[in-house]
Write a structure and sequence with these properties.
Number of domains: 2
Mean pLDDT: 96
Radius of gyration: 23 Å
CATH class of the largest domain: Alpha Beta
Helix content: 25-40%
Shape: globular
Structural class: alpha/beta
CATH superfamily of the largest domain: Aldolase class I
Strand content: 15-25%
Strand order of the largest sheet: 3-4-7-8-9-10-15-16
Low-confidence stretches: none
CATH architecture of the largest domain: Alpha-Beta Barrel
Bound molecules: flavin mononucleotide
Largest sheet: 8 strands, parallel, barrel
């Protein structure tokens, strides 16, 4: 691996910006070991909890929304926390750090409503040698019913108090993993910063009900016909994650691990351009395995070299200045469709229908092909999006 992928995350460094998020791919030391061997830069351990906290998972606990070719669009889970004891993880952290000193190993933790239980977990994981702690104040299912997980993350005062208490007892950097199930995530990020956090991880899953079987009336996923709302992840949540990471970047000056729907190196680059220092990935690995890291590392490396950058650090936040209030964006630029490749136009009429029923009725299909009535076109761009043959492109009219 070339050093061009070396990434800085606050006071920490890692060989590349790709980190396994806390979840099934980090459920055991053996799995994390295989992931590091495959080329992952770091891993966040499946959330560790006090041994006395009863964790019993549902079966099944996943549901998927797939496209016509079987590709994953969105994923729901109602899974709880790690099935291993605290002492198991202490041993694994020691062993993993001994064998992979350059990889970032982060311990995700969740105590109960008595915050001293979080302190105890943080001290034990820190003493075992993990590089950072991640406070899971964002799990949206099951745990909030017990007053923890997202029940804490949705309350900035609790986020501040918990972060302060944990930071007071551990010498390792503390990251706070925030929930998107909140009106304004930047308030929670600010509370974490005020509490002394060293960084932010965002986002955890988005609350959802993936679907309902309309014949059996069972919600998805269902256990014996009943279900519970879960957490949404995978490609569908990337736009939500990007927006929240941009909001956090502009609010606090802490390093951010961007999370949500990343399955390609290009997704990761987008998070970094909007202010993340590194990224975490869970669902794409559950669907495709650890091996996706090879194309991710290669793709990111090529992108940086081709554009003359020496590290992912150099592109961090480069797009933030272009994200502006709505009223500031130019009104003089208008896009207009043109049939640039009439030979590939299928004459399917989709653009005409979309423009007639969802736009400005500016397109006409004639025996000679598509005609754009410029006087009616309002420049919304819908026709360009519905054209599957890419026969339409846009020209920009200014002034
Ligand atoms: C099955 C499953 C289990 C998860 N378990 C945890 C967990 O134990 N702790 C945690 O902080 N996040 C957990 N997550 C959330 C992920 O770490 C991540 O924040 C989320 O899935 C969004 O990223 P993705 O779209 O790359 O999956 C879990 C996600 C999934 C899909």
């Amino acid at each position: 691996m070339t050093s061009i992928l070396k990434t800085t995350l606050g006071s920490l460094t890692l060989p590349n910006p790709f980190i396994l998020a806390s979840g099934p791919p980090t459920a055991s030391g053996e799995m994390i070991r295989r992931a590091f061997q495959a080329g992952w830069g770091g891993a966040v351990i499946k959330t560790i909890h006090p041994d006395g906290m009863e964790i019993q998972d549902l079966s099944p606990r996943f549901a998927a929304w797939t496209g016509t070719k079987g590709e994953l669009l969105g994923f729901e889970n109602v899974e709880l926390l790690s099935k291993k004891t605290v002492s198991y993880w202490e041993k694994e952290i020691r062993s993993l750090k001994q064998d992979f000193p350059d990889n970032l190993l982060i311990a995700s933790i969740m105590g109960d409503t008595d915050f001293t239980t979080w302190q105890d977990l943080a001290v034990r994981a820190g003493d075992a040698g993990c590089d950072a702690i991640e406070l899971n104040v964002s799990c949206p299912h099951g745990m909030p019913e017990a007053g923890v997980g997202a029940a804490i993350g949705q309350n900035p005062d609790m986020v501040r108090d918990l972060t302060k208490m944990v930071s007071a007892v551990t010498g390792v950097p503390v990251f706070v993993k925030l929930t998107p199930n909140i009106t304004d995530i930047s308030k929670a990020a600010l509370a974490a910063e005020e509490g002394g956090a060293d960084g932010i991880s965002a986002i955890n899953t988005v609350q959802c009900i993936l679907g309902v079987d309309i014949q059996t009336f069972a919600p998805l996923p269902s256990t014996g016909g009943n279900g519970t709302a879960g957490g949404y992840s995978g490609p569908a949540i990337k736009p939500i994650g990007l927006k929240m990471v941009a909001d956090i970047s502009r609010t606090v000056s802490l390093p951010i691990m961007g999370i949500g729907g990343i399955s390609r190196w290009q997704d990761a680059a987008q998070y970094i351009l909007l202010g993340a220092s590194a990224v975490q990935i869970c669902t794409a690995v559950m669907w495709n395995g650890y091996g996706i890291i090879r194309t991710m590392n290669k793709g990111m490396e090529n992108y940086l070299v081709q554009n003359g950058f020496d590290s992912p650090d150099e592109i961090r936040g480069a797009v933030l200045g272009r994200m502006q209030p709505h009223h500031v964006i130019s009104r003089t630029i208008r896009v207009e469709p043109v049939v640039s490749k009439s030979e590939v136009c299928l004459q399917c009429g989709r653009c005409v229908t979309a423009c007639r029923d969802g736009g400005y009725d500016a397109l006409i299909m004639t025996p000679k092909g598509l005609v754009v009535e410029r006087a009616r076109c309002d420049g919304c761009g819908l026709c360009l999006l519905v054209c599957s043959s890419k026969a339409l492109t846009s020209v920009i009219r200014s002034g």
